[in-house]
Design a protein that fits this description.
Layout lengths: L8 H17 L7 H26 L4 H25 L4 H26 L3 E4 L18 E6 L5 E5 L5 E5 L3 E3 L3 H9 L2 H11 L10 H8 L7 H5 L15 E2 L4 E2 L6 E11 L8 E13 L9 E4 L1 E3 L2 E6 L15 E6 L7 E12 L5 E12 L12 E5 L14 H5 L5 H8 L4 E7 L3 H7 L6 E4 L3 H17 L10 E2 L1 H9 L3 H16 L3 H4 L2 H20 L12 H21 L3 H5 L14 E2 L1 H9 L1
Antiparallel strand pairs: 1-2, 1-5, 2-3, 3-4, 6-7, 8-12, 8-13, 8-17, 9-10, 9-14, 11-12, 13-18, 14-15, 16-17, 19-20
Helix pairs in contact: 2-3, 2-4, 2-5, 2-6, 14-16, 14-17
């Protein structure tokens, strides 16, 4: 029997060719085009819904913008569908039926997203204890239903138990559903970037600003300069702790503090621009003493100026004719007796705005930065210029950036990253060392205080008059009777009305220029002249019916107030006093009670205790 030869590659190739020929003769199955198209539309609808939830979770007030974006995406989808329909006319009838179903699904999704946007559920970002009757106590992470939103920063809310009360908006953030967050994470990186661009303007509304902290979450005078200007009693309640009389000098005793310095605000660079939907009323910096856990001093505000050619740069202490308004003065003093090793200065940049669509007013934070005043070994930091890069979020959050677009572009070479660092928002400040005269002047002020350098001489006059009345002129130290003194009763209100403070500064500067050199060295004579200037300038203005109430960052109100103040100062200068203006029938003043001109120091102490 002959041996069997192995099959070579040629017969195998011939057989494979026959099989391929047989398969080629068979009809090729056509894919389900309509099914694929529905899957693509379903995916696009899912991504669109994810973007809607992402944007609305950041802000509940921008449904129109998100809806516009969704409509644009739907138009793009329909355009793509039209192109595909032109390429394949045989599937037109089937696709039209599918598009009707998709339209119904999209309308259903839009209705659901609208219901989510109008939801009034918020989450607490911190613990809050009721400070007075009508407040609602809540804990971090608790869900609150907002019943009424009020412009003063306190909203009426209801918790899960049905209890109602006022809550501060600085402790709230819109409620984020977990499903929306998970679905957003499943989206592609491009979708997340688009969501970031949509929310870039809205992200700032979630940040806590120092103004809101002083205005809403801590109501009253706790963070106001007038609160810290009042004397403080010792634990025994029998003497003043920070106000003592020096019999040798015949005035109040100087009291050095642990921290006493002067700083200058130079400028702010690369500050993010606000959106087109709001009108900026004020750009400002708020600063206070902070130990990492709580605010230790009053919150001082300095308004910034800017040029239309450089909208991302803010400057301070502009060159003006006459006296520089104290609100624009970038030179500030700080005093503190805190021994905390983490003591520092907390700066926050912000804007006051009005929304064009609704007329709603509010505050936006443009970033914050903390300058620690002591190093790790407890040595004070040197007096020099510091370039501080701003952070986003709140002072209790770490690693939050102000402008996320800069970090997304910062990946590359070292040189490129250095260039990106120069585009980070930053604040330039300078710490100045004190000479003996400045240190002695600051030692006459309260132990914890922040203020403007241009008003320091007026504050010292107030403290000296306070010492004369409470320590020198009292018949009995055990007497708690009211003290009739308009200066002590009304001067703290000037710290909340900077234009009236500027009027006092202007009147005092004019009067001081007429004094002799020997008169300027006489402290008692200067106090007597200051009292006359105060009664001629401040008291009539505070009770004038022509002066509108002070409102922050309202240009019309500020202009109207300054016009009334300027006209009054001009009349005083021409008539050499306010008596003629007071007796004139044109000068109308509101009636007041004598108690408004009396100083109740025990009442002020009780307010601080509360």
């Amino acid at each position: 029997m002959l041996p069997r030869w192995p099959r070579g590659p040629l017969p195998c190739g011939r057989r494979r060719g026959q099989e391929l020929k047989q398969q080629a003769d068979e009809p090729t199955p056509v894919g389900n085009y309509h099914q694929k198209k529905e899957e693509e539309h379903s995916l696009l609808d899912k991504l669109t819904h994810q973007l809607q939830e992402l944007a609305m979770s950041i802000s509940r007030e921008n449904i129109t913008e998100i809806g516009a974006l969704t409509e644009r995406e739907e138009d793009d989808d329909s355009a793509e569908g039209n192109e595909e329909e032109d390429n394949d006319d045989e599937e037109e009838s089937k696709e039209s039926g599918g598009e009707e179903e998709e339209t119904q699904e999209e309308e259903k999704q839009e209705n659901e997203s609208h219901q989510q946007a109008t939801s009034k559920e918020y989450t607490a970002v911190g613990n809050f204890t009721a400070q007075q009757a009508g407040d609602l106590t809540f804990k971090k992470g608790e869900m609150l239903l907002i019943i009424e939103k009020k412009p003063d920063g306190w909203w009426m809310a209801k918790n899960a138990k049905g209890n109602k009360g006022l809550v501060p908006i600085t402790y709230l953030e819109p409620y984020h559903k977990e499903e929306g967050q998970e679905s957003s994470e499943e989206g592609s990186e491009e979708d997340v970037d688009v969501g970031d661009e949509i929310a870039e303007e809205l992200e700032v509304t979630r940040r806590i600003s120092l103004e809101c902290c002083a205005k809403s979450s801590l109501r009253g005078n706790q963070f106001r300069a007038s609160y810290f200007l009042q004397p403080e009693l010792t634990p025994s309640q029998l003497a003043f702790r920070d106000l003592m009389w020096d019999a040798k000098t015949g005035t109040i005793r100087a009291r050095p503090s642990h921290v006493s310095l002067i700083l200058t605000l130079w400028n702010c660079k690369m500050i993010p621009l606000p959106g087109m939907s709001i009108q900026v009323l004020s750009r400002h910096v708020r600063l206070c003493l902070f130990d990492g856990n709580k605010v230790l001093s009053n919150i001082h505000t300095v308004r910034a100026t800017w040029q239309p050619k450089k909208p991302r740069t803010w400057t301070f202490s502009p060159q003006v004719t006459g006296i520089l308004p104290c609100l624009l003065d970038g030179d500030c003093f700080l005093r503190s007796n805190s021994l905390s090793p983490d003591l520092g200065i907390l700066f926050e940049l912000g804007i006051s705005y009005i929304r064009n669509s609704t007329g709603e007013r509010g505050e936006l934070s443009c970033g914050w930065v903390f300058l620690k005043l002591f190093d790790a070994s407890g040595i004070p930091i040197p007096a020099k210029t510091y370039e501080l890069f701003l952070n986003g979020g709140t002072p209790y959050e770490k690693g939050v950036e102000v402008d996320h677009s800069v970090s997304r572009r910062a990946h590359g070479s070292v040189f490129h990253q250095m260039m990106m660092m120069r585009r980070q928002p930053q604040l330039l400040v300078k710490l100045r060392s004190l000479h003996r005269r400045s240190r002695n002047i600051l030692s006459l002020l309260p132990e914890i205080f922040i203020g403007s350098m241009c008003c320091i001489h007026l504050l010292i006059f107030y403290r000296q008059i306070l010492g004369d009345v409470l320590l020198k002129g009292r018949m009995s130290m055990q007497s708690a009777d009211f003290i009739s003194n308009p200066v002590l009763a009304t001067f703290p209100t000037l710290l909340e009305q900077p234009d009236v403070m500027d009027a006092l500064r202007s009147s005092w500067a004019e009067k001081e220029n007429t004094l002799k050199r020997s008169e300027k060295r006489d402290g008692e004579f200067l106090k007597a002249v200051f009292l006359l200037v105060y009664h001629d300038c401040v008291v009539p203005l505070l009770h004038s019916t022509l002066l509108p109430p002070f409102r922050w960052a309202e240009e019309e109100t500020e202009s109207a107030r300054w016009k009334v103040i300027a006209d009054f100062l001009k009349q005083n200068q021409e008539n050499k006093g306010a008596l003629q203006a007071l007796l004139s029938p044109d000068g109308v003043h509101s009636p007041f009670d004598i108690s408004e001109l009396t100083y109740d120091f025990l009442g002020e102490i009780r307010k601080k205790a509360v």
